[in-house]
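Quick one from the shared queue. A colleague (R.T.) flagged Cation transporter as missing a structural entry in our internal table.

Convert sequence to structure tokens.
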Amino acid sequence: MINWKLDLRLLAFIELFIGFLMLIPTALSFRYQEADAMRGFLIAYLGIAIFCSITLILIGKPKTKTMYARDGYLVVTLTWVIATAFSAIPLAASGAYVDYSSAYFEIMSGFTTTGATVLPEIESLPKSILFWRSQTNWLGGMGIVVLFVALLPALGVSGSLLVGAESVGPTKDKLTPKIKNTAIILWSIYIGFSFLQTILLVFGGLNWYDAITVTFSTMAAAGFCVKNSSIGAFGSAYVDIVVTFFMLVSGANFALYYKALSGKISSVFKDGELRVYLGIWAFVSVFAALQLSFSSTYGSFFESLRYSAFQTASILTTTGFATANYVHWPAFSQALLFLLFFIGGSAGSAGGGVKVIRIVALIKMGRAQLKQRIHPRGVFQVRVGQTTFREDLLVSIATFFGVYILTGVVGAVVISLSGADLITSFSASFLCLGNIGIGFGEVGPTGNFAFLPSWIKWFCSFLMLVGRLELFTVYVLFSKHFWKH
């Protein structure tokens, strides 16, 4: 059963909320006297007003405010689709983007924290448009619906189903008994880190506009930048270190920060996923730096470590920033970065991808199967840190990984129909699905998606949405059982 009136009412209110947040870049368009951009934002407001007015007037008040699991999946998926549709209007209507397909791709890339772009040249665009582009990164990092859940009690609706459908990872951390309070805590931590990073970047010489937009994309593990050369444009080791640190912060489970603030620091350091997550970053950073140093790619080991640590954090956390064109690095270093495509950040983080916890669980499942072959009557549990995984959760993880890889492969085949080469096709597919933003081939650190036809951009937008909502939230809508009463 689907409560259509309630779902449409929620979608209208969420879109009004997105429109309210659009006031910030609109004010910037006035501040910088960007008439075309202001026209684009005004057209977007008109579209939002028409949609919300018609929706709220026609459907009226729902007879019941009871939500079912199907309502959660439907509202969350449509929220991202509709929010992107209206948020893309300023980009297209201002003339900053060549067509609506490109604008939709860009905003979907923003909200899903992918960071992939269709822009061959960035700095010539209106500052207000670039700010909105980065702001969508920040809004999507912790989740559009999770942010809105704090307002749901006023509508008399429980947000647990919505947060569950939008949150990432095989397990969902409920920090407090009330889901509203959990949402407030997560966003408070998110805002606190964002404020701290902005201050540190300003201290490092960046102006407020650059510092805020870089922070938006860093804390969201997203990757949009207002510079053509991404973070490398600043040419500052200090900025690289600050951004690297906060990329790692954004890629860790935010529930751990709440535990630390609650005085449970020892449990944070005992967290198995966190240890593996930081271990992967350290391992790849050091070994890549060693080869970069030995191959004389950079002048010293510490210079090599600066670039390898940054790029490792960028891809592992699925942020997608760049300070170097790593496609010119030695093959071994590139191979290490490529492996990170199939890992991603931690569960409960702003990062995308498969997630570290799933990769560790899969490896331990393999070990358990080997032991089972040797000792058929033995019972072997899969543990990550202090957590023991139930059998049903392990099946869910294995299923997710299988569907994830299958989706990426099918995506690569579809993208290859555009004429893109094999490396570009696979890279584009998995970077969209994993919300990574940069890859190899024509979509590498100096490339973009502008060369792809419009229909491929729509398909890539779908991959980004599927990846951000972790496959099944979207895929369930294509099941005939979903629509049966």
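Residues 273-340 form one domain.
The longest strand covers residues 383-384.
Added to the table.
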